[in-house]
Amino acid sequence: MKLALYLPNFRDEVTVKELEDLTALAEDLDFDSVWTLDRIVVPEASDREELEYPFGMMADLPNGLPVISRGKWFQGMPLIPWLAAKTSKVRIGMSIIDTPYRSPGVLAAELATKDHLSNGRLNVGIGSGWMPEEFAAASVSHLFPRRHGHVRETIEIMQGIWSNDLWLY
């Protein structure tokens, strides 16, 4: 069995010291990996029990889900190389990268760089997203209806970029 630790990078009360301490603890206890979340915005109710991820009663509200981008929380992407620099053996995970928010080519380059900086210790979860408000915040609302196809396309593009072959898309 492999154990992983989720780092609460999008909670207002989290500090850099706490993230550092949790990561060190995971490495000291021989956990397989530590994981961060990738969010553009955070649901306002994310700290409350009434938000049932992802399609609970709040997802049915007529005006959508109230979201916030205020507060002290840490984006997952920039945390990856920081966490890698603070550790030597624990794998560093990113969950879940919703592909519609990023250019596939840029995402492929970012992930390859982060994997290299971590000496091959990067784990990545890929997804399609579920919150229309987050698509709006990323200025990609038009991709929401075809988000699942976008994931397949992004994976195909990234695999092509990472191959050793001449690749055109």
Give a verbal description of the structure.
With 169 residues, the chain is of the alpha/beta class. The protein has one domain (4-163): Luciferase-like domain (TIM Barrel, Alpha-Beta Barrel), CATH 3.20.20.30. 35% of the residues lie in helices and 15% in strands. It is built from five helices and six strands. It has helices at 16-28, 76-85, 104-117, 132-137, 147-162, and strands spanning 4-6, 33-37, 42-43, 67-68, 91-98, 122-127. A four-stranded parallel sheet has the order 1-2-5-6. Strands 3-4 form a two-stranded antiparallel ribbon. The longest helix has 16 residues, at 147-162. The radius of gyration is 17 Å and the shape is globular. It starts with a strand and ends in a 7-residue tail after the last helix. The model is unreliable at 46-53 and 55-62 (pLDDT under 50).
